[in-house]
Specification:
0% strand; 3 helices
Length: 89
């Protein structure tokens, strides 16, 4: 009889914890995940925009054949960032 009461008490305690503590924790976790995801996406967007601005300014000020290689590298990086941004959504 004592064992059954202990098991019943333990089951009741678990149910109380699951009913009162767990839902807010799950919501907090979900909110944090969404926040981190949006922060990551905004940083990638800023990096993309900065990269784009840099290459346009760089291209107008630098001269020579190596500028084409640098431009290509920046365009490839921009493409990769676009892919990352689309995969993150």
């Amino acid at each position: 009889m004592k064992m059954e009461l202990k098991e019943l008490k333990k089951a009741l305690e678990k149910a109380l914890i699951q009913g009162t503590v767990a839902p807010p924790c799950v919501q907090t976790t979900t909110t944090r995940k969404e926040l981190v995801k949006s922060m990551g996406q905004s940083r990638v967007e800023r990096l993309k925009n900065s990269s784009s601005n840099y290459i346009s300014n760089f291209q107008s000020s630098a001269k020579g054949a190596w500028v084409t290689k640098v431009k290509t590298t920046f365009e490839n990086t921009s493409t990769k960032l676009t892919t990352i941004t689309k995969e993150g959504k």
